[in-house]
Amino acid sequence: MKRLSPKTIRCELKYKIFNHDLFKFYSWLYKNSTFTNTYPNRVVSSLYFDTQNFDFAISNMSGESRRIKVRARWYGSNTKIICNDFIQKNIHFNIELKRKDNNLSDKHLLDQIYFKNSSEHIQRISFIEKNLNNNVNLRAYGLNDYLSAAVFVSYEREYYEIIGNSTVRLTIDNNINYSTKDSNSYDGKLSHDFSIVELKFDPAQREKVEDLMSSFPFRQMRFSKYLSAISKIKLISY
Questions:
Q1: Which pLDDT value is given to residue 218?
Q2: pLDDT at residue 153, rounded to an integer
Q3: Sign of the CA dihedral 42, 43, 47, 48?
């Protein structure tokens, strides 16, 4: 994998906050930090893609420092019946490639697809899949294996930024749900008793962030929504 792009590189730290500790988290957020709510909450949904052998998932599961995710992302209204949201009319999809190198990552927009009319979800998946695999930018990153749709993931996200510094962001993901690519019903919930907090910042802000997070009462951890979802539906063992 090529080196991450200096223009889009950022550091990402993740924390699992259990429901019984949420009061402690929000107490820190409002009393001991300079974060402020910057955007309305919204539902974030993704259809993840992988190789036939689930190479992306396996590299994550094995703890490889350099790994890749490819997804079609949109902003919907329903975290439970994700496929119903996926097939609606007037839906705009961002086709994204995300690369990670330990705690550093970058994200690249490969394509944008807009559907004016509703359609069957298998037809829509096939259209996106075909466009993805014909994408010249995808090949530029050395991804030559055919990529297939694997699983849907959806969650409700809260957005915060440091006051006066938009390069340091904190998001809170609640009600994380998943669905198989072949289902048009509710399959399951990943986050029965926890939320995922992600801290994202320009590496140049590391010293400031370390000072800010010195009072944070939770430990950093690894967590992949994609990996957790495909293990739930038994595509891989994790």
A1: 95
A2: 94
A3: positive
The two three-digit tokens of residue 168, written as one number: 């340091």
Confidence of residue 203 (pLDDT cuts 50, 70, 90): very high
> Can you give the length of the chain in residues?
238
pTM over the 0.85 mark = yes
- pLDDT surpasses 80 at 62: yes
CA dihedral (145, 151, 74, 21) in degrees, to 10, reads: -130
Q: What six digits make up the tokens of 84?
A: 């119903």
User: How far, in Å, CA of 151 to CA of 200, rounded?
Assistant: 25
Alpha-carbon radius of gyration of the chain:
18
**C-beta of residue 169 within 8 angstroms of C-beta of residue 161:** yes
- C-beta of residue 36 within 8 angstroms of C-beta of residue 29: no
According to DSSP H, which parts of 9-78 are helical? 22-31, 55-61
